[in-house]
Every structure is written in structure tokens, then in C-alpha cells.
Amino acid sequence: MRLRIHRGTREIGGTCVELECEQKRILLDLGLPLSVPDLEGAKLPEVDGLETGSPDLLAIVLSHGHRDHWGLVPKAHPGVPLVMGAATEAVMNAAAKFVPDGVALKASYHLVSGQPFVIGPFKIVPHLVDHSGFDAYALEVEAGGKRVFYSGDLRAHGRKGALFERFVENPPRAIDVMLMEGSSLGRLANDQRFPSEEDLEQQFLDRFNQTSGIALVACSAQNIDRVVTVYRAAKRARRTLLIDAYAAEVLAATGYTTIPKAERGWSNIAVYIPQAQRIHLVRNSIATLVDKYRNFRLWPEQLKDRAAQTVMLFRGWMIRDLERADALAGARVIWSQWDGYLAEGAGAALKDECAVRGLPFESIHTSGHASVPDLQRLAAAIAPRRLIPIHTFGREAFPSLFDNVVLVDDGDWIAV
């Protein structure tokens, strides 16, 4: 078996790894680079048959549903089979109804944690991991008597941190090459750890209790861990979590009974359909989609009176609805995404809008990626013969932090 990283040895995003054995190939992820603003301007990596189709290219295996890991799939030949988690597929398909550049993908096979499956000469074992992207997997691949471990994106401080602890206690053995993400290198000191989702829950609770009006939390509805954190904090503050139809559909698509949803059996949750979203639903002939939330609806004329008892999952364009409803008195905006998004675009515009209106604005967030001490625990547990950095801007730091590091370049074939 041999492999090559098409993108990721010197950057975060656009991840794509090609594995070859017995003249058959698979791809691990096919992401959109962060440096490319849209799909139209993006180029596929130079993989034989990726654009035209080839019987030698057996599958694209997606580790999770973040765009920097799947975003180039729409440009690939439709005949190349896709493999992903069932919940990943369901969440992406639910989101595609609302997101302008969303894509509904169809899997030929679903990943199941711990359940091996075979594609040609490749035996693959997926491992469900803790990550801000829901239904994320690390991938263990065996072929030609060699073994590769691809970490995908993972962390230890999320709501599923127990998965990480169990994994380091019982790791895969005899790994020849480990491709390990290093997103966190350079973001904090090498001996520091990111706050946990439990830490954030307490911070949210404190802010909700200090807010006299509506608490507006700007986070991704697809960051399910964060939505659960906000829901738990809202419930502890005796506030209702208000979500839009997009968030309601994403939460329902997870299929997990432990995740809050706008359905019977869940308290402290309501659905509000902003005006722009109502127009979108009608124009796309999917207005009946929200009929099932009728018993959970909060209407525009109720926003003002309910503001002090409400936490709202929020995006900047929703501020118009709140203004029309006169529901911004005493409001607070909490940014709960990567702070880099505040530098330009919608994040910067939201921050400016808050400044103009005199709305308090602050950030409560933690990374979706493992801190260096946790990456060191992972690498020590697996003890690969070679460790290759991927998904990182900090590859030069790897040799001083981990054993058996080998630095490679995009496009280079590496014998496993």
C-alpha cells in the first residue's frame, strides 16, 4: 500500500488523502480548501478518474460533514461511490434545503463505529470520535499487509470526550503510518488545553442570568455539541431555547433520542420562523415542512413579551425580525464560533450591527480540535512507526512534540 496527501501537509482545510493497493484506490475525504471562496473556483486534486470516473477508483470515504472535508465532492464523477456516516448524510440533506450552497449527498455505504467493511483490497474500521462536527470518524485502513490510521478531525474536550478516553485506552495496534491532524498547533501554548463544553455551559448560564432581555447565541446549528450545551444552559436558566426551521430540521436529522428536538417529550424548546425563512420555504415549495412544529411555534407578536425568558440560536440577518418585534431591549449577543470569522463577511457585519445598536457582544467558544497534550496522548497510545502531520499550519512543531514524525509534501507518494 502507498498513499499521498493531495492537500493538508501545510494547511488546514481541503483535506484529501489517496490510498493505493493492488492498482485499486480510495480517497479519504475530498474537502474544499479554506482559501477558496466557493465551489466554482475550486479545482479537484489530480486523482486519476476523479472527474471522469474510473473502475480503479473504488470510493470516497468522508470522515465527517464539515465542508473542508467533503466540499469538492459535487465536482467528482457521480459514479464514484460515497461512504459516510448515516447521520452525516441525514444532517447534510436536511441542511441542503436551507443553505444556499448546501448539497444533498447519497451514500453507497454507511460507516458504523467499530464495524469493519471491505472495499476492494482495503479493510476499513471507522471509529466514532469527539468533534464539533456531528457523526465524525477516525479511519483505520489495512491493505497489502500494512496499516494506516487517519485521525480525521477530533478532540477530547467535547460532550463525547469519553470516546477519546476509551480510544486511548484501547487503541489500534501495529500502525505503520498515522496521519494526525494538528489544527490546534499555534492556537494556544503547547501545554494548554481548550475549555470543555461543560465549561462553556457554565459560562452561558452565567451570561443568561445576567441578561435582562433575549440572549442571542450565534452558533452553527450543525455544531450539535454546542446546541446541546446552549440548550442545557438555557434550561438551567429557566429559559426556552428558540430555534428556526433550519436548526429544527438539523436536530431532527441526527436521529439521536438524546439530542433536544422540537417534538413531544422535550421541554424548553420552541420554533420561530423568521420572515426571510418563511419566504424561502414558500419559494422552494417546502412550507409544509414546518407543519409538524405547529405546537412548538413562537410567533412574531410573542417575541417581545417572551424575550426575557428566551435564548435564541441566532444568525445576523435575524436581527431585523427582532427589531420589528421590538424585542431587543436588554438583549445580549454571544458569538460561539471561531473568532476568525469575525474578521470579515457575515461575522464582521454582525459585530458592526451590534455596535450600532449598542448591544453587548462577546465570544464564548471552544475549539473543535484536540489540544496538543491530548494529541500527544493519542500519538503515544497508538505509537505508529511513522507519524505524518496533516490538517495543520504548524507542521514544523511536530518533531519536537511527537515521536517518529516524518514531514511530507502535498502530492508525494509515500510507501506505507
Question: In words, what does this structure look like?
Answer:
Helices cover 26% and strands 21% of the residues. It has 416 residues and is an alpha/beta fold. It has two domains: 2-189 and 368-415, 4-Layer Sandwich (Metallo-beta-lactamase, Chain A), CATH 3.60.15; 197-363, Rossmann fold (3-Layer(aba) Sandwich), CATH 3.40.50.10710. Helix 3 packs parallel to helix 11 and helix 4 (197-210) packs across helix 5 (224-236). The longest helix is centred in the middle third of the chain and has 14 residues, at 197-210.
Q: How would you briefly describe this protein structure?
A:
The chain is α/β, with parallel strands linked by helices and 416 residues long. It is built from twelve helices and 19 strands. Helix 6 links the parallel strand 13 and strand 14.
Question: Helices, strands, pairings?
Answer:
Blueprint: E1 2-7, E2 16-21, E3 24-28, E4 57-61, H1 67-70, E5 82-85, H2 86-96, E6 109-111, E7 117-119, E8 122-129, E9 136-143, E10 146-150, H3 161-169, E11 177-181, H4 197-210, E12 215-218, H5 224-236, E13 240-243, H6 245-253, E14 269-271, H7 275-283, H8 303-306, E15 310-313, H9 319-324, E16 332-335, H10 345-357, E17 361-363, H11 372-382, E18 386-390, H12 398-401, E19 413-415
Parallel strand pairs: 3-4, 4-5, 5-6, 10-11, 11-18, 12-15, 12-16, 13-14, 13-15, 16-17
Antiparallel strand pairs: 1-2, 1-19, 2-3, 7-8, 8-9, 9-10
Helix pairs in contact: 2-6, 3-11, 4-5
